[in-house]
Specification:
The complex is a heterodimer of chains A (192) and B (248). Chain A is an alpha/beta fold. Chain A is 49% helix and 17% strand. Chain A has one domain: NAD(P)-binding Rossmann-like Domain (Rossmann fold), CATH 3.40.50. Chain B has a single domain, classed as NAD(P)-binding Rossmann-like Domain (Rossmann fold, 3-Layer(aba) Sandwich). Chain B is built from 9 helices and 7 strands; from the N terminus they run E-H-E-H-E-H-E-H-E-H-H-E-H-H-H-E. In chain B, strands 3-2-1-4-5-6-7 form a 7-stranded parallel β-sheet, with helices on both faces. In chain B, helix 1 crosses helix 9 and helix 3 runs parallel beside helix 4. The chains are: A alpha/beta (192), B alpha/beta (248). The interface between A and B is small, with 8 and 6 residues.
């Protein structure tokens, strides 16, 4: 596979946990992996790991709550490698907050990352994917947003449920342009 | 995967359509496939195709709704390759009829082939899977079992029953190493569907987000995934290769 033929995937929150594992899996599958996260040391470790295994990867700092940064990172990656073959909107946070202590700010912050952050990345990647007539968007929801509630994590459950609705809406809107949108809802995963 | 290390996979209703595609895909993956169908001739044809492509296959014809016949099917699998390590319950048929016109016999036959057949085949292979501490069962349901379909009440009921059976059995045996999941295909270009009116097919395709029906091989890919190590965390799930017709 030539360099120009190698598909590129951008993964958010890829410095640790599910995101890091996903990055490694895509590298094993022959993708060029763009590891993005606010955690630079961990992300560079993932990149080094991929490269030592013979894969290709690069790191970009990416705070999914920052629209300008999301747009500029996606744009920079596309300028260098062409339209993304796939994005994995994985970045997320989960904090235990009893309802009595759930402030508007805490609710908003979780939604900024876990729901609006997903939207931002998908929105940024969509134009080039649509123009190319191909692409796959994968959003990471949670079993807590799909099948169960999680006490003292109301804001998280709501955001992850929101991701499901986002996936469905995007899927219908982008399907005829050749862009597939799906979600995964992991259960209990041993992460940091 | 060398034949010595490949798994024995029994696929019911594998003489045509989705079942044939599943059998061929699993054989391509290196599994030793036991091809069941009510129609022995089509089962033999699929076996011949698989062998012609370098795969391993044997036929085990029989009616999955008949308990005695199922014992014969599983015995044939054991004689050919050993006790099934993978079971794909795919056998089924479609009958479109208004509910008010359905006879009790129509209803019973639909349930017998789809749901009872799934039960009988699973019941026949499960003890060995449990003894071994490993096994994979994939039940082919339908999106109609999730959302219903006009003039398909009995079909939808049978397929919904398969989904319920999948979830319950998954809860019961997954800790013992047997993974149970289902696939719920959407509109797929099988011989049956291709026989329906072009007008209906075009109108239906226009409704789909993807704009087209699926192909049997695309369902087979999902089934094959569920038999892979990568699907280890999928327990009691119903995956939907359905062109976006249903989003659950």
């Amino acid at each position: 596979m030539t360099d120009s033929e190698k598909p590129t995937v951008l993964i958010t929150g890829a410095g640790i946990g599910i995101g890091a594992a996903t990055a490694r899996a895509f590298a094993d599958a022959g993708y060029r992996v763009i590891v993005t996260d606010i955690l630079e040391d961990e992300s560079r470790s993932v990149v080094a790991d991929i490269e030592s295994g013979g894969g290709e990867a690069g790191y970009h700092h990416l705070d999914v709550t920052d629209t300008d940064e999301v747009e500029s990172v996606v744009s920079a990656v596309q300028d260098r490698y062409g339209p993304l073959e796939a994005i994995v909107a994985n970045a997320g946070i989960a904090h235990r907050v009893p309802l009595a202590k759930l402030t508007d700010e805490k609710w908003d912050h979780t939604h900024e990352v876990d729901l609006k952050g997903v939207m931002r990345v998908c929105r940024a990647a969509a134009p080039a994917m649509r123009a190319a007539g191909r692409g796959s968007m994968i959003a990471v929801s949670s079993i807590m947003g799909v099948a169960y509630g999680w006490d003292e994590h109301v804001q998280y459950s709501a955001a992850k449920a929101g991701v499901v609705g986002l996936v469905r809406g995007l899927a219908v809107e982008l399907a005829r342009d050749g862009v597939r949108v799906n979600g995964i809802a992991p259960g209990y995963i041993r992460t940091a | 995967m060398t034949p010595e290390r490949s798994r024995v996979a029994l696929v019911t209703g594998a003489g045509s359509g989705i079942g044939r595609a599943i059998a061929e895909k699993l054989a391509e993956n290196g599994e030793r496939v036991v091809v069941n169908d009510l129609n022995g001739e089509t089962a033999d044809e699929v076996v011949a195709r698989i062998k012609g492509s370098g795969g391993e296959a044997a036929a085990a014809p029989g009616d999955v709704s008949d308990a005695e016949a199922v014992q014969g099917i599983v015995a044939a699998a054991r004689d050919a390759y050993g006790s099934p390590e993978i079971l794909v319950n795919n056998a089924g048929f479609l009958q479109q009829k208004r509910f008010v016109d359905l006879t009790a016999e129509d209803f019973d036959r639909m349930i017998a082939v789809h749901l009872r057949g799934t039960f009988l085949c699973t019941h026949a292979v499960l003890p060995d899977m449990l003894s071994r501490g490993s096994g994979i069962i994939v039940n082919v349901a339908s999106q109609l079992g999730q959302i219903g379909g006009i003039e398909l009440c009995h079909y939808s009921a049978a397929k919904a029953g398969i989904i319920g059976l999948t979830k319950s059995l998954a809860r019961e045996v997954s800790a013992q190493g047997v993974r149970v999941n289902a696939v719920a295909p959407g509109p797929i270009n099988t011989e049956l569907v291709l026989g329906l009116s072009e007008e209906w097919r075009n109108a239906k395709a226009a409704e789909l987000p993807l704009g087209r029906f699926g192909e049997p091989w695309e369902v087979a890919e999902t089934v094959a995934f569920l038999t892979s190590d990568g699907a280890a965390l999928y327990v009691g799930q119903t995956l939907g290769p359905n062109s976006g017709d249903v989003m659950l």
